Amino acid sequence: MDFRTPWEPAPAKTPQPPELPRLAKPLGRRPAVSAQVAARTASSSTWLYHHLTVNGPATPVAAFATAARGSGVIPW
User: Fold this and answer.
1) Whole-angstrom Cα distance, residue 23 to residue 52?
2) CB count, 10 Å around CB of 64?
């Protein structure tokens, strides 16, 4: 509480540690690694729509498409 009556002695001041000099902020572009991490973090909660193209003989491609289509039921 920061309330003091006039007859109370002033609180003793605690010595503050000396302020450390601040390092200069680096100028220029960020390193590529930081940009990749930032991009991954920003898009980690975003759904991305992708197209998958499969080539090959008709029978195996049809079997793959049927298996990839699934049952159409969400498992939760």
Assistant:
1) 49
2) 13
Would you say the C-alpha torsion 23, 24, 25, 28 has a positive or negative sign?
Answer: negative
pTM here?
A: 0.33
Q: What is the DSSP letter of 37?
A: H
Give CA separation, 74 vs 30, 31, 48, 70, 71, in Å.
41, 41, 18, 10, 9
Go through the chain and tell me how many residues it has. 76
Nearest-angstrom CA–CA distance, 16 and 70: 66
pLDDT surpasses 70 at 18: yes
